[in-house]
Batch of 4 targets.
Target 1
Amino acid sequence: MLTEVRLRGHDFTNRDLQIVILNNDAPRLSGAKMHSTFPAIPLFAFELPCIVLSTWGAAIALLVIGGVAARSAVAGARGLEKIVALRYLLFAMPLAVFGAEHLCSGKGMVEMVPAYMPWRLFWIYFIGVALVAASLSIALRIQVRWSGLLFGVMMFLFVAMLHFPGALSEKHNRILWTIVFRESSFGGGAWMLAASAIPGWSDRVNRILATVGRVVIALSAVFFSFEQFLHPANVPGVPLEKLMPTWIPGHAVIAYLTGAILLICGISILANKKTRTMATYLGTWIVLLVVFIYVPILIASVLDPSTGARVEGINYFADTMLFAGAILALAGDDKMH
């Protein structure tokens, strides 16, 4: 049986990608009602599509690996520096999720690869492997100067080849511009990690990577602040199309406070004034949003029998966590301060 799922993906799948999941044995997840004399047990307890299992599995695996690797750094830090010490974990875990997504649903992503590129399916799987490798490298702090540099290059290429041309073609589409800044901030964060890596690059290269990373992250924060003020009903942090669930209280307070923090910290970082302090405050706030907004959304998505809802839940969670990791990469760059 064919079940069509509308999926919000990542990189090559930032647009609402149509994926068709082939499952000949699974009953339809919506439509006909099921009757039983036993207490109702959610169907999703037994039928989990590959993309759900792989993304969740990758997230849990990197949480364990990155948590163990960050244990000593967190233990030795004080106050908000404990949050900064988690930057490698916060940056690495989403990469594993997106890598698993590419590897599991590659055929559905082929149409997102530019038509002029040869071996389109190969590039989907290649990027999936690269994302998983980068996540392990960053989580374990092994050759981060290379993984951070190359992941940043990849993100900026995505922006130049896919997202920026798409945004230019629909100049009034705020979602497309939000994705341009979001992906750019991911690349900037990766370059911040590369610039602060030990062993690292030359001082000149480190200055270039750090400056580009700082400016891109700051501009993204300022852009997101305006979007947050203009669209307070949307989820905070990276304000894309999803609306804040009605069961989360204090919508307006969260939205406008997030917008103010993004604006103040973004302008200060752009001006290179109290950069580390402001990046620490902003990164910590985004982490709080992940914990108190996106984790509940993620849990709610698991209880939804729709594969699309589950994938959307983990994607929003991972996107916002990666944005937090990028900001904290700026806060943790000791070479800059």
Note: DSSP finds eleven helices and two strands in the chain.
Target 2
Amino acid sequence: MNNVELVAIADVNEAEAQRVGAMMGVPHVYTDLHKLLARDDIQAVDVCLHNNYHMAATIAAFEAGKDVFCEKPMAGAYIDALKMWEASQATGRNFGIQFVTMYANEAKAAKSIIDSGQLGRIYHARSYGFRRRGRPYVDGYGTPNFVQKQHSAGGALYDMGVYHISTLLWLIGLPKVERITGKAYQEIEMDEKRRAASGYNVEELGVGFVRFEGGLSLDILEAWAVHMDKFDGSMILGNQAGLRLEPFGFYRSLGISTSTAWPTWPASIGASTTYVKMATPMMARNNTGLQPYRAACH
């Protein structure tokens, strides 16, 4: 970012703080967060600790008069996240969470489609996140702290699920939750030496089902490790159309035609559009009468 100067870094591990500071050209290195926050030349702080430590650092920054950008998830527990939000409101400081998916082109396109009413009445959404093998540390990357509940609060649901669930909730208008059910799993084999060294005690697969006020529902499937080749991306279903976020697709009926000619696609779609797929039920005439077939505009 051309308009941002990184002036200080803090970490309780002094050797790591010095290493990262030297690598990134950060002039001031601290092992005490409060000494960093006492500087009057800092406007904002990026909190990139493990999930269970977000709350204390964030509130300390607000109270020191700093704005905060915090890693996702907002916190390891709801009560901590609530305290963070209340502190930002009480101090009047800006507060952002690293939900990069909300700024993706796919999310922006979905928001535009939904806000224009093209999905009709939304009745179901699906939150999907997939890794064939991607458990931190035990599958070859990251640190043991990432897979210890006392530090991270959770596994695949906290790490990946928070992206997809938060984006979907935003897109469907943050409906009021009535009931949640779910189950967490840790079933896939792993190297026993890494299991012992990591203290791995979080979920590799999280599933859930949410009922909202008004009949809307959401199902959740988030995997760090699973014996499967892929999951389809998160999606939202309406009674007039549906959309998938990744890879992006928009699906709706253009109605029934008894003509043998191909339909005329709306000019707004355009021949070169790659993000819109229109599935069209049509009727083709042949010697036996009307037969259904499907056409798609890509």
Note: The radius of gyration is 24 Å.
Target 3
Amino acid sequence: MRLFIDHHRVKLTWQTDWLCSQARLASIRKQHTAGRAGSTPREVDDLRGDDDRDMGKTGYFTHRDCWKHDMGGGHPECPQRLDAIEDRLLLTGVGDAMERGEVPLATLAQITRAHSVAHLEYLESLSQRLVADGPAGGPAHAMLDPDTYLMRDTLLAARRAAGAAIAATDAVIGGQLENAFCAVRPPGHHAGREQAMGFCFLNNVAIAARHALEVHGLDRVAVVDFDVHHGNGTENILAGDPRVLMVGIFQHPFFPYSDIDHPADNMLNLPVPAYTKGMDVRELIEMMWMPRLDAFRPQMIFVSAGFDAHRDDDLGQLNMNENDFAWITARIRDVAKHHAHGRIVSMLEGGYNLDALARSVELHLRELADL
């Protein structure tokens, strides 16, 4: 299976890539310093803005249908991921601070703001065939790529995950919540307008971003993606849309082996090689993401929260830990406070070491809820 084994290939060239990345980082540092020459340095705390009022609670959206998608024993994108998160929130008491929200099924109109009708019809036809053929001993799944299997309950789970994104967006924009996290699966950021791949079927973040723009009438939204894998599906859907700024940092070269050399003007990709340390990631984010986000002035921020860049996760080789994810979350929240009245909707993407995932989500939520 491609996603499971590609990381071994990366280890053969990581030393050269790491040296190149250090040179690139040094070059960025030099450009960044030169660009600030003659101007007053902006302090990190300036991004907190003047609006520090308490806008409300942090929402937590999940649904038992998201457990029903099961690609089989040994597959890393498994229902136990959500169990690990729930157990951690119960153990630490963080779950008690969350406002749990109802999760509807996403509708055709909501999904097709990001995906083609043909894509959804294709998934529905496969799902219906699996259900119809099941009693006669038919196959239990349809393979969409070597890592991605559509099961009989997959589309139900995917529509519920997208519905969580919609419900969280409505609640945050409506003022019932300051921000929200959606503990849902399957993940979404590899799903393009016409394609399911990389464990993903419907692109939850893209669906929610388009909902905020086209239903609620926002003018500018940002998408932040810190999964270890490039959010190629989100880029495919949102590239060229001037209402959206997408910033991402990810291991490269690595699955999905995207062509990142000529991104659209509204895309800011920060590819880093295997074994990049968390402090280097932080420095790149501070120098590259933050000025771009500040200049864009998003009215809401959507987060593809993938925790597979954790050093304990076998599906990536970045040397990050849960404290790095907490730091990134805090910086996202700074931008949201300054420009967006604190409005953030965060969607679970990757994260396959169950213990590391649970710890990382806990700290992510602590930052969102200011605990």
Note: Residues 2-17+54-369 form a domain with the Arginase; Chain A fold (CATH 3.40.800.20).
Target 4
Amino acid sequence: MHAGGICDRISDHQSVVFIRLKTEVNFCISPFDITRSIFKIGKFLLKYVVPGYQQIMKHFRAKIICAILLIAFLSSNLMLLPSAAAISISPDTHGTVITVKNPFTAGYGVEAANYSVTGVDGSWIQPKFSCSGSTPSSAGFGIQIDGFNGKDIEIVGTGGGCSNGVPKYAAFYAFVPTTSLEVFNIKISPGDKMFASMAYSSSTNMFTAYLKDESSGKSARATGSVPSAQRNSVEAGVVSEVNSTSQCCLALAKFSRIPFGMDHTHVSATCYATISGVTGPIGSFGTVLKLVMTNVSGNAVRASPSELSKDNSSFKISWKSAGP
């Protein structure tokens, strides 16, 4: 596992770095999903291939005959079915969740095929930082495209931390490596309901970062080009700041439990992604990465997400320890 980040100042004393996580994960599809896809294909075949299907199904006894015919058909024509890797999982199903522990991020993410991601959006309620002492600490909250693999990252969200015991808050975006972290001119306060989106346009080859404070009504937008973008992952959650050596991390600012997604914010269709033309909750795409932030040694948790909601869209992230 390898990680790198970007850094730029968001105040006189505070900087925030947003990390991209690289991990090797073997993607799979469960036998349940294969079986479910088989029966969907069977239903299609009965409806559109077997003559007189509508009339046949009116008779209860004929249903048994149809079931037998379906089993026989599938048994003799199994070679016609696509391989497991080619079967598309509908967004209304739960993806397979794999937990990944790392020092940099907490939340949920999805890895996808290169150039398949065209958008992600999210909503959250800005948490309050609890600051004490003089040790600097930071945390960021947002959504992003890319960042799991390669050097590219397109990210938008809110961040801040503690400087000399004083909490600071800011809104940001970045198109890396084209631009480093930039600050939106929006005042952010604890308790504000936030909405953000990152979208890619194939016609212009540009990304658009959008952020709106639903509580104040203030919003901002920025566009940027990242020619090397792979568009092969999305993520929503909390990120940590690396130290000056870019190895690992500053202390994670203590924050109140932060809710993500429409079930908690009532901002519809968040946290959602669009991958290969399919739009759905972030937890519905095949293999989902549950990102747990640990200290450098990996023996203590710094921040951890809850389980996904039943609709795959929402979760909460709890601060556990500062680390690093």
Note: Confidence is low (pLDDT under 50) at residues 1-92.
